[in-house]
Design goal:
Pfam families: AAA_6. Helix content is about 55%, strand content about 10%. It has about 100 residues and is mainly alpha-helical.
Length: about 100
């Protein structure tokens, strides 16, 4: 582990303990996705990595969210910046509703 990985794990644990989500940020190639995958291994949960792009709509992401929740997996949405603002807004609302229901 690196100090950055340790910091990322700490943030992810805090989010998990408060039933929130977390969004690791940083330049490309700094290990954000790999850190989330390693974190899910430490939790003994599968990690579902989904690469977002501009063709993805709310229904697509909704189905993925349902699968993540029902399977008890850790979700990792890579390249979230590629989603349209409308889709990102709608999915943010969906995630918030899931968090409130837990």
């Amino acid at each position: 582990h690196t100090p950055l990985t340790t910091r990322c794990f700490s943030t992810l644990i805090s989010a998990l303990n408060t039933f929130n989500s977390s969004n690791p940020q940083g330049p490309a190639g700094t290990g954000k996705t790999e850190s989330v995958k390693a974190f899910s291994c430490k939790l003994a949960r599968p990690c579902i990595v989904f690469n977002c792009d501009s063709a993805i709509d709310r229904d697509d992401l909704g189905r993925i969210l349902i699968g993540i929740v029902l399977s008890g997996s850790v979700g990792c949405f890579d390249e979230v910046n590629r989603l349209s603002p409308a889709v990102l807004s709608a999915v943010s609302t969906d995630i918030e509703n899931i968090q409130k229901a837990i």
